[in-house]
Amino acid sequence: MSDAGKGAVVTGGGRGIGAAVAEALAVSGVPVVVTARTPAEIDAVADGLRARGRTAFAVVCDVTEPDSVAAMAARAQELLGSVDILVNNAGVARSAPFLKVTLGQWEDVHRVNATGALLVTQAFLPGMLERGWGRIVNVASVASLGGARYITAYAAAKHALIGMARCLADELGGTGVTVNSVCPGYVDTPMTDENIERIAARTGRDADAVRAGLAEMQPGGRLITPREVAYAVMTFMPEEAAALQGSELVVRGGGWGAGPAGEGGAE
Ligand code: NDP
User: Fold this and answer.
1) What is 8-185+226-244's CATH number?
2) Would you say the pTM of this structure is higher than 0.85?
3) Which of 4, 25, 140, 245 has fewest C-beta within 10 Å?
4) pLDDT digits over 54-81, tens only?
5) What residue segments make up the domains of the chain, in order of their start?
6) Residue list, ligand 1 pocket, CB within 6 Å
């Protein structure tokens, strides 16, 4: 990859997709700051990468808090020299039938999945524009592109995330900075484990059976792996990807025949 040496920040990098993205970047030679709220998780990811001879740092950040984002951005710039790659991956999922969506749930999901990405992007974009090179990738969802029952707040926030990227892309033409999104179906991560536990508790079904059912519902008949999503994220990194601007890469292992199922728990 021609961007070796450039610095990257991955939000929500302590586990799941974010940890796999941090690994893919670090292994390709990019120094990485791994950030999330739980110190033990981001430390474990950064320590693991350093043990493999890669450059990685852990910096705590809550993407919903402007002061926390500003402090993380300053520290990341200090550690990396410059931040040229940003992966907005931090996210939370909640599910409820439409009439049971609470204001708190709606606002929490929007603050992390949409507002958080806005704040972190605003922190790093000026430097990228100044240097005339940057790659911003948002980890969106198939729920950014379609709806499904019980995931109203999540799908709305993920639609907001993709709308933000489409608008920003329009401002970025000719700047050397790109913004794109990946849209995974169900991925085998702690978020999906929690979702499975929730469905199992609600329906009284066995968690393994719920997991198998979820996998079967996917167009490819299985859950996507975090590494497969990381590979999609990496697609946007090379110089040759400069014309990929405001695009969405769907990572779901199959077509749309099964409908736009989201990952909030369509049961
Ligand atoms: P996980 O729950 O496994 O990981 C989420 C990460 O986000 C954690 O590191 C978590 O760390 C971090 N995070 C959550 N809230 C905040 C916050 N306020 N500030 C900073 N970091 C935060 O989720 P996944 O790996 O599954 O998901 C990653 C992304 O991919 C999310 O945006 C999700 O919506 C999206 N996605 C997931 C799919 C799936 O099926 N799993 C499918 C499609 C998209 P901490 O709690 O320590 O802050």
Assistant:
1) 3.40.50.720
2) yes
3) 4
4) 999 999 999 999 999 999 999 999 999 9
5) 8-185+226-244, 188-223
6) 11-12, 14-18, 36-38, 41, 61-64, 89-93, 112-113, 116, 139, 141, 184, 186-187, 189-192, 263
